[in-house]
Design goal:
87 residues, 3 helices, 66% helix, single chain, mainly alpha
Length: 87
């Protein structure tokens, strides 16, 4: 049938994955002997996620990914308290 669960759009994830791995390796080099390992692990996970997400946005999303990203962003905005801009 020629079905494959993968397509060329997955190649776009190489840049975000590479950037995240580089950030994690840099964090590991800087904090080679951490006092509070759990803080470093938490910060590394958060930073790696943010780098992955930011790089993925820079590389570009296809139509399906934009729909999912928009739904997630709308959900996040719904949870955050509404603030008014005072001028």
């Amino acid at each position: 049938m020629g079905l494959s669960p993968y397509n060329r759009s997955y190649v776009r994830l190489l840049a975000p994955v590479t950037a995240s791995v580089i950030v994690l390796l840099m964090i590991r080099a800087v904090f080679s002997s951490p006092i509070h390992e759990w803080v470093v692990v938490g910060a590394a996970l958060l930073l790696a996620y943010l780098v992955f997400f930011g790089t993925a946005l820079l590389v570009g999303l296809d139509a399906d990914d934009r729909v999912i990203a928009r739904a997630v962003w709308n959900r996040i905005r719904g949870v955050l308290p509404a603030t008014e801009v005072v001028r």
